[in-house]
Design a protein that fits this description.
The chain is mainly beta and 446 residues long. The chain has helices at 2-24, 105-108, 130-144, 426-431, and strands at 31-35, 39-42, 48-53, 59-65, 68-73, 77-85, 92-100, 114-117, 120-123, 126-127, 153-154, 157-158, 163-189, 192-194, 205-206, 214-215, 225-231, 236-253, 256-260, 265-278, 284-303, 306-326, 329-338, 341-345, 351-367, 382-401. The strands form seven sheets. Strands 13, 14, 17, 18, 19, 25 and 26 form a seven-stranded antiparallel sheet that branches. Strands 20, 21, 22, 23 and 24 form a five-stranded antiparallel sheet that branches. Strands 1-7-6-3 form a four-stranded mixed sheet, covered by helices on one side. Mean pLDDT is 75; it is low at 1-29, 108-112 and 203-213.
Length: 446
């Protein structure tokens, strides 16, 4: 009796092993799939006498007729179904039931991309852009049960290009106008001297009784053009100081960078200048401050019509006009143009991400009290200085979807490659009217 029970237990164990193997890897034609909470009819290939389900918590079976069964899915999982033929000694058919998580209506229309296998929800296929891909992932997470569900198995691809080239143009125009005017009239006659001297400009004055006054006289405006006229016989000297300055400066920077969608990239072209810092006990340390052209960006490609880019361009240069001297050491200032923003454009579109219009105006009049207010004659006792500076700054950004060059493809010419062997004769250099280096080159940077 014990031997028969042992053989029966061994047979049942072997049968269980066989069933487990079939559940792990069932034939594709014997798989019945349905979503949890749903039901579907099943027609066996022969009339049945009875059925058995391995795990009724996963699926349940109802016999509606000898040739028709009703399968009900309860929860996601896997189980087996045994069907016995009605006639005596007939075969026993084994099926595999797979109950999947139900997909929401948002994912039902994209069944080729969002699928469920038991408790695991997967995203497969190719999406036209990142927006459709994110929508499919959201539907998959919702179908998986939210945050407590297992991670979504993402095996999908995006058809749009994943590399973005961002071209940034920073253009600054600056115009300066300076006008100054001053008069001076000096008269020395019969030991009597009268004239106009700028503040702190009269360095020496000699007064001798019975003689003319001697002195060192200054120009009305030291940095202006001087028109001098006088007569020694009459002891008269006239000076007219006039100055007009017109200056224009243009700064152009075109940094460009290529990066994969969703990643960050930085670009720097410039240098560093030292800044001495006094420490205790007379020690001095040196700190370096960078300057030049910088570009930091993070693009995200949603589609060819939607490219979001986080940009932070910067152009800085040394400004000697704001130099600070401390302890006998001169440290220059830095003129900086910087922007930090996030934009959204289509492939190849351009937008102005920043602009500045600045105008500085100053009008200074230096005059002698009372005498400078006299009509007409007051012009001989005053000087005028007029200065105006106009500045305009524009920052333009253009994202482009790019692809690498094909293998063994001809590369575009490098900038300046046409001047590698440039060696003109002295006759050509002397009489050639056009500077050959003014020709704009086109290479990788364009």
């Amino acid at each position: 009796m014990k031997t028969r029970l042992g053989l029966l237990a061994l047979a049942c164990l072997c049968a269980g092993v066989v069933v487990a193997a079939e559940i792990a890897a069932p034939p594709s034609q014997d798989v019945i799939r349905l979503a949890s909470g749903s039901q579907q009819p099943f027609v066996p290939p022969f009339p049945v006498s009875r059925v058995a389900v391995g795990d009724r918590a996963v699926a349940d079976i109802r016999v509606l007729a000898p040739t028709q069964l009703l399968i009900q899915g309860k929860r996601p999982g896997f189980t087996s179904l045994l069907v016995w033929e009605r006639k005596t000694g007939g075969p026993v058919k084994n099926y595999f039931i797979q109950v999947d998580r139900p997909l929401p209506p948002a994912a039902a229309g994209k069944s080729a991309q969002v699928t469920a296998s038991g408790e695991q929800v997967s995203v497969q296929g190719s999406f036209p852009d990142d927006e459709a891909h994110q929508a499919a992932l959201a539907a998959a997470r919702q179908a998986g049960g939210g945050e407590k569900a297992p991670p979504v198995d993402d095996r999908s691809t995006i058809a749009a290009e994943g590399q973005v080239q961002v071209d940034v143009q920073i253009v600054e125009m600056s115009r300066r106008v300076l006008k100054s005017f001053g008069l001076n009239l000096l008269n020395t006659r019969d030991n009597f001297t009268i004239g106009l001297f700028a503040p702190s400009s009269l360095k020496k004055l000699d007064l001798v009784v019975g003689a003319a006054i001697g002195g060192e006289y200054s120009q009305p405006m030291a940095d202006a053009f001087q028109l001098v006229g006088g007569s020694g016989a009459h002891g008269m000297l006239r000076m007219l100081s006039v100055l007009e300055k017109n200056g224009m400066a243009r700064t152009l920077a075109r940094p460009s960078m290529v990066v994969v969608s969703g990643q960050s990239a930085s670009f720097m072209a410039g240098g560093e200048f030292p800044i001495p810092i006094a420490q205790s006990l007379g020690q001095v340390t040196v700190s370096f401050k960078p300057y030049g052209i910088r570009l930091q960006m993070t693009p995200t490609v949603f589609s060819r019509e939607r490219i979001a880019v986080k940009l932070a361009p910067e152009v800085s240069e040394i400004d000697l006009q704001t130099t600070v001297t401390s302890g006998g050491v001169s440290v220059p200032g830095v003129l900086t143009r910087r922007a930090d923003t996030t934009i959204e454009l289509a492939d190849g579109e351009s937008i102005v991400i920043g602009g500045l219009v600045s105008q500085n105006l100053s009008d200074n009049v230096d005059k002698v009290p009372l005498l400078g207010d006299i009509p007409v004659l007051g012009a001989f006792f005053k000087s005028m200085r007029y200065a105006r500076q106009d500045r305009e700054l524009v920052i333009i950004a253009t994202p482009r979807l790019v692809r690498p060059l094909a293998a063994d493809a001809a590369l575009p010419p490098l900038p300046g490659a046409e001047y590698d062997r440039y060696d003109p004769s002295w006759l050509r250099a002397l009489f050639y009217q056009r500077d050959p280096f003014e020709v704009e080159t086109a290479g990788f940077s364009r």
